[in-house]
Amino acid sequence: MKPTITWIVVADGARARIFVNRGPGKGLELSGRELTAEHPRTSDMVRDSLPRTHESVGHARHAIEPRVDPHQDAKREFTEHLAQVLDQSVAERAFDRFVVVAPPKMLGDFRKAMSKRLQPLLHGEVAKDLTKASSKEVADHLAETIII
Question: Is residue 18 within 8 Å of 7, Cβ to Cβ?
Answer without folding.
Answer: yes
